[in-house]
Specification:
Helix content is 31%, strand content 33%. It is α+β, with helices and mostly antiparallel strands.
Length: 49
């Protein structure tokens, strides 16, 4: 299934990238993962937040 989702992202009219980062929760101290699909130019800005 993962191959299909990656292929459908790349075959569109625009090249997209999936970015994943770990975020520490203020309340519990546990880490969660935040995923977002965006253009490759926006990845660095997303990771800086």
């Amino acid at each position: 299934m993962a191959k299909k989702s990656v292929a459908s992202i790349q075959t569109g009219s625009k090249r997209l990238t999936k970015a994943v980062k770990m975020v520490k929760s203020e309340k519990t101290g546990a880490y969660t993962f935040v995923e977002q699909i965006m253009s490759p130019e926006d990845v660095n800005e997303f990771l800086k937040k």
